[in-house]
Amino acid sequence: MRMYDLISKKKLGEALTKEEIEFMVTGFTDGSIPDYQMSAMMMAIYFQGMNPEETVALTMAMAKSGDMLDLSAIDGIKVDKHSTGGVGDKTSLALTPMVAACGIPVAKMSGRGLGHTGGTIDKLESFPGFSTGIETEQFISQVNEIGIAIMGQTADLAPADKKLYALRDVTATVDNMSLIASSIMSKKLAAGADAIVLDVKTGSGAFMKEEADAKALAKIMTDIGNGVGRCTKAVISDMDQPLGFAVGNALEVIEAIETLNGNGPEDFSLLCMELGAQMLLSANKAQTVEKAKAMLLEVIDNGKALDKLAEFVKAQGGDESYVYHPEKFTLAMFKRPINAPVSGYVSHIECDEIGVCSLMLGGGRETKDSEIDLSVGFVLQKKVGDYVEAGQPLAIMYGNDIAKMDMAEERFVKAYTFSDIKPAECLMIKAVIS
């Protein structure tokens, strides 16, 4: 078998066999197939596409390129959740303790952020002492003991995907549905969960700007998961404006804690309830969405979800007192309002621009080696549909560098569009695909 022949075959639009895809992935991972040949293959796939069988084969080949985490020692049905990412997306911080408090084991691998804002691990490190650098044995025993653990992604988890994504990123072949789906699902399948719930974002702050594209991606990913025996569902959710009000690491943790106290923003709480309900259904903890949501509301009302977050933070070396006293979190030195330039209804927010503003303050990474400032960010005061008078605050900005704050403020204001007419309400949950 020669890589040259496989490139030629795909260039002509023919389907690759499972064996050919496994040969390709193995060779690229071990270095026997060079970057220039894999680049040619990625471009051929970009233009010719992959059929469902090829997409599943590619996903499984990448999943098996490294360690396949065995979670069989954990009692119960393990349900993983993955988000395609967005601005202000702190969902895992509130959702995982809610689900764990309902009796579903949460054994989750998460990553750091690259780009607009921090990842789940960065946000959790706002708790002094918190560490996700735990060994697999502790990871499994912790889930059995308290029902929840989150660890950083290991280098040996789907290494083919890491290497392939780096190549796609510099060869303009990222935005192909099969390649995106296999990249996401290879890591989820390697992480060992019995069931997977996907939060696929759509809108100006999402990778998939158009709802139709988000639904198409969700369909491919659910087909992959269900095709290999993992119960997989997807929720299509809005990312045409930041999720909740807080954008920035420590600020988002505080908002997640407020949500576990029953005081969270309406859109964020709605998303957590929908994703949580789908996780409970996947774990056979509830038979209907209504019953699942009732269970989730109960663990918020009785404080068990908040207590579960504290238990989890303590188990991984963090100071759990911050869960009950979020005023202890360190926030940026300077705080000031960003005021509306005109009066009117907020008709649109260019969501990814808000993420860029957070990055400008130091709240995200421009490179994988950048250090994040966990204390900076924004708390929005006005979102789409809200009326604002000229001079009233659109947001409160937190920063440690006045020059950076000045630049971020100028860009932030330009991300808002105003109208004399109140815009139509935008649905948070667009669809559920199962």
Helices and strands, with pairings:
Layout: H1 3-11, H2 18-30, H3 35-48, H4 52-63, E1 79-83, H5 91-101, E2 106-110, H6 120-124, H7 136-146, E3 148-152, H8 159-170, H9 177-190, E4 195-202, H10 211-227, E5 231-238, E6 246-247, H11 249-260, H12 266-282, H13 289-301, H14 304-315, H15 321-324, E7 334-339, E8 344-349, H16 351-361, E9 377-380, E10 387-388, E11 393-399, H17 402-414, E12 416-419, E13 429-433
Parallel strand pairs: 1-4, 2-3, 4-5
Antiparallel strand pairs: 5-13, 6-9, 7-11, 8-10, 8-12, 9-11
Protein described:
The chain has 434 residues and is of the alpha/beta class. It has 3 domains: 3-49, Transferase, Pyrimidine Nucleoside Phosphorylase, Chain A, domain 3, CATH 1.20.970; 79-324, Pyrimidine Nucleoside Phosphorylase, Chain A, domain 2 (3-Layer(aba) Sandwich), CATH 3.40.1030.10; 331-419, Aldehyde Oxidoreductase, domain 3, CATH 3.90.1170. It has helices at 3-11, 18-30, 35-48, 52-63, 91-101, 120-124, 136-146, 159-170, 177-190, 211-227, 249-260, 266-282, 289-301, 304-315, 321-324, 351-361, 402-414, and strands at 79-83, 106-110, 148-152, 195-202, 231-238, 246-247, 334-339, 344-349, 377-380, 387-388, 393-399, 416-419, 429-433. The strands form 4 sheets. Strands 1-4-5-13 form a 4-stranded mixed beta sheet, sandwiched between helices. It has a 4-stranded antiparallel beta sheet with strand order 6-9-11-7, sandwiched between helices. A 3-stranded antiparallel beta sheet has the order 10-8-12. Helix 10 (211-227) links the parallel strand 4 (195-202) and strand 5 (231-238). Helix 1 packs parallel to helix 3 and helix 9 (177-190) packs across helix 10. The model has no long low-confidence stretch (mean pLDDT 93).
